[in-house]
Amino acid sequence: MQPRTPLLCVLLSQVLMLTSAEGLDCTPGFQQKVFYIDQPAEFIKDQAILNLTFSDCKGNDKLRYEVSSPYFKVNNDGSLVALRNITAVGKTLFVHARTPHAEDMAELVIVGGKDIQGSLQDIFKFARTSPVPRQKRSIVVSPILIPENQRQPFPRDVGKVVDSDRPEGSKFRLTGKGVDQEPKGIFRINENTGSVSVTRTLDRETIATYQLFVETTDVNGKTLEGPVPLEVIVIDQNDNRPIFREGPYIGHVMEGSPTGTTVMRMTAFDADDPATDNALLRYNIRQQTPDKPSPNMFYIDPEKGDIVTVVSPALLDRETLENPKYELIIEAQDMAGLDVGLTGTATATIMIDDKNDHSPKFTKKEFQATVEEGAVGVIVNLTVEDKDDPTTGAWRAAYTIINGNPGQSFEIHTNPQTNEGMLSVVKPLDYEISAFHTLLIKVENEDPLVPDVSYGPSSTATVHITVLDVNEGPVFYPDPMMVTKRENISVGSVLLTVNATDPDSLQHQTIRYSVYKDPAGWLNINPINGTVDTRAVLDRESPFVHNSVYTALFLAIDSGNPPATGTGTLLITLEDVNDNAPFIYPTVAEVCDDAKNLSVVILGASDKDLHPNTDPFKFEIHKQAVPDKVWKISKINNTHALVSLFQNLNKANYHLPIMVTDSGKPPMTNITDLRVQVCSCKNSKVDCNAAGDLHSSVTSVLLLSLFSLACL
């Protein structure tokens, strides 16, 4: 019995028969462009993996092969071999073949054993995409694969378009982005042979694929067939280093964290083709600074870039570390970390964060302080120690007085720079009441302690405070002292006797008195018994009196060494006496000699005294000096009266004595001359020259008088 031919072999033979039956011209390039290689356990050095067939249709003179992986080569006979034993090479290899006349690219896909048996559709798909056309009278194109970064010379042929039955005189035409659209002029086609060429170096990272179109035209440019799409694929070269674009990279991890705690993630970017090993990155730590207590404090996941702790929690103790900041040089390498891969580096800064695992402790159990009685302010600074981070609430101290401060005479605050407790006296202390004070003070952190740490006896301290006796000044009682007297009382009248006591009751000192401030010079004080009497008349209307109250200051001086002084205030309320006569205003008036209105002026009166020694005022014309039937005065209200004429007078100056009397008991009277100017008033002009030197108009005087009346 003859062995059965495998189905795959039969199908492949049929495909070859179909393609050879066409009998077409030679097409430059690889006869097969895609190969599937089963991933073995290991590629063996110098062992042939497969054979590639390339033809430039001109004898393959100076044929050269290039492989995308440095671990493989293609021999002159087309056999692909490994340069050393290797277990993994990635997903795809590319083989570039080139002669002076042609070049082409073949793709080698490395798959598992299960994937090497393709379906019938996949097999025939290969036949359809091979450079040998299956139908006559049609444009046949295959995808063109071009490595990026090719060097001179240019232009160079990269593929060929075939038309099996092209009419005589017809031409090929190539269009699309890269030909007649931006970027223009990268590709062109030989209109007679169909050879496609590239004119410059390509960069896959700029444009990865070009979608072109091929058609045939007659001599007039009319399309005969097409357009047919032609895809140009730029094959990636490993020409981009990995870069870290998201820096600075700063991570934090709490001290005492468990082994394997994730600190941060670092990822790099590679501009090469992500479907190839050119952009397959692996990470590692190149350097750690400092290298204590272990040179390997951290580990980075080579694929993900996660940085984790690898030391025990005990070694991750911030208080025992030489430096709580670590700097790691992280390297990213493409080609899956193989030696031929390109690298990029970045610095990761990792901070070991503090937790409150140390309670504050006073540097000693007892503190001493002294303070003078009557003084306030800071009397002692309490010092503590705390091993935690000085920049955190785990170090900052908070102090509390827990005993010995019933009168709230003391307060304690934290010095933000030194963390010391500043104990202050806020209410003056009295030596005569208590010469000694004892305070119990505790200290805590702003942040709570971790569960396994607590505050111990060292977190409390005692402060002993000694109050020093000071010679205090005598104190007046009451202060201020107040007395009420009538103004104008006789000189030598006793106002009161002041009283001052010495707070230093244990010193048995004597006190002497003196005048400190007496603005009007009205007062005396007996230096021994403190009796205050007058040495001048008290005047309620004096400019030194405000709201009927006169203020004076006295001193009480003890016999200490040096002597101490106390100050007392005396407020004298002065009762009013009718000792001021009223006065009138204004004292000058004008009137026209032909005035129809015989009103002269409205007079007002004022008095420095207080009610009832002021208004209502009585206004009169002093009869003895003025003829009757010329002037008259009429009361308007309690403070104003109207002066008017019985008849017009000739142009001249007149003096009218006005008598005004207040309502005091007994009343006081004042006589004041009112000067009246009778002026000539012609054509709205007032002429008082002949009457005197005054130039105010009658109307102005009347208006001023009415205004004064309205304001009362």
From TrEMBL:
It comes from the Eukaryota. Keywords: Calcium, Cell adhesion, Cell membrane, Cleavage on pair of basic residues, Cytoplasm, Glycoprotein, GPI-anchor, Lipoprotein, Membrane, Metal-binding, Repeat, Signal. PANTHER family: CADHERIN-13, CADHERIN-23. Cadherins are calcium-dependent cell adhesion proteins. They preferentially interact with themselves in a homophilic manner in connecting cells; cadherins may thus contribute to the sorting of heterogeneous cell types. May act as a negative regulator of neural cell growth. It comes from Equus przewalskii (Przewalski's horse). The gene is CDH13. Residues 157-171 have a biased composition (Basic and acidic residues). Gene3D superfamilies: Cadherins (2.60.40.60). It is found in: Cell membrane; Cytoplasm. Residues 1-21 form the signal peptide. It is a lipid-anchor; GPI-anchor. Residues 146-244, 245-362, 363-476, 477-584, 583-694 form the Cadherin domain. By contrast to classical cadherins, homodimerization in trans is not mediated by cadherin EC1 domain strand-swapping, but instead through a homophilic adhesive interface which joins two elongated EC1-EC2 domains through a region near their Ca2+-binding sites to form a tetrahedral, X-like shape. This is Cadherin-13. Its main location: membrane. Transmembrane segments: none annotated. Residues 155-177 are annotated as: Disordered.
